From TrEMBL:
The chain crosses the membrane at residues 20-42, 133-152, 159-183, 213-235. InterPro entries: CACNG_subunit (IPR051072). Keywords: Membrane, Transmembrane, Transmembrane helix. This is Protein CBR-STG-2. The lineage of its organism: Eukaryota, Metazoa, Ecdysozoa, Nematoda, Chromadorea. Signal peptide: none annotated.
Length: 313
């Protein structure tokens, strides 16, 4: 038997007990926290290419430019000089080692240092990343709180399990807003600069997104898996329809309406699809005598909701 067949057999024969589902939820939740937390402190969210003036002029006395590469995060901006594609290598007089070597600078919003000599486009991007950074930290903390609620809810078998599912979704929405704001900031700052100039020459500006960006964006998928697992764990504690009536808003009214439709002979709609809660209710015959009796029974069932399920016992 091959390894794939063994794994398939193990998955098929495994029993989805509460402990197994909880272990899976915790494993996926821990993976989510890593995907969301580590990018906060990384400085390679966006890789940018930007031309900057150097200490050299051409025959017309105009200052020459060379290409610098930047990588930007929430808290740092780093720069390194890269020789252009023409093969020209500048000496230390034209580009000092202090400018050509890889060096990182703290976000000016935190350091209060003027970095206009270092960059323009990258500096504009990192300054506007303050709001996305705040939302990212908030979303990660909310998901961390959801992870804690899931643990407490499983240990105590309480409603914290359901709250964990809801909190996971809220945290992921906040984080998605932060990622979308990063996209808007980068596109707003770089798109105008990447257009060809008046002479038709291509722009020297360019950018690509780094691993932290994709890690944060893709974390939305495992977050939804966590939310589904915790919600499934919570609802498994209430297997019958009568028990679900206690905490599902609007379920009792929906079941009463379904019972009335069945008793009056109204054709079933989408609510009677296989697996829906309305399918738990019996469908009576639609003769004239049964309809008169069904109207009487419906009045009794509305006065006492527990009678809706007596026919299932």
């Amino acid at each position: 038997m091959t390894l794939g067949e063994r794994v398939s057999k193990f998955v098929i024969e495994a029993r989805c007990t509460d402990n197994i589902l909880f272990s899976g939820a915790m494993a996926v939740g821990g993976f989510v926290l890593v995907m969301q937390s580590f990018p906060i402190f990384m400085n390679n969210w966006v890789f940018l290419t930007e031309p900057r003036g150097i200490n050299k002029t051409n025959e017309n006395g105009e200052q020459l430019e060379s290409t610098f590469h930047y990588n930007t995060g929430y808290f740092q901006i780093c720069r390194v000089h890269i020789n252009n594609n023409s093969g020209i290598i500048y000496d230390e007089m034209e580009i000092p080692p202090s400018e050509s070597e890889y060096k990182c600078y703290l976000n000016p919003l935190l350091s209060q240092v003027d970095l206009t000599d270092i960059s323009l486009a990258s500096l504009a991007v990192i300054i506007r990343l303050g709001s996305p950074a705040l939302l990212h930290v908030t979303g990660a903390l909310v998901c961390c709180f959801a992870f804690f609620l899931g643990v407490v809810g499983h240990i105590r078998s309480s409603f914290y399990t359901l709250f964990s599912s809801i909190t996971y979704i809220c945290g992921s929405i906040i984080l998605c807003i932060a990622v979308l704001m990063v996209v808007c900031v980068v596109d707003d700052e770089l798109a105008p600069r990447m257009k060809p100039n008046a002479a038709g020459e291509p722009s020297k500006f360019s950018y690509t997104y780094g691993p932290p960006f994709f890690s944060s964006a893709l974390s939305f998928i495992p977050v939804q898996i966590c939310a589904c697992l915790h919600a499934f764990l919570y609802f498994r504690r209430y297997p019958s329809v009568v028990e679900k009536l206690k905490f599902v808003p609007g379920l009792e009214a929906k079941l009463r309406r379904a019972q009335l439709d069945k008793e009056l002979g109204i054709p079933p709609l989408e609510s009677f699809r296989r697996g829906s809660l309305a399918s738990y209710l019996p469908i009576p015959s639609f003769s004239q005598g049964s309809r008169r009796n069904s109207r009487r029974s419906s009045q009794a069932s509305f006065s006492n909701p527990s009678l809706l399920f007596m026919q299932d016992v």
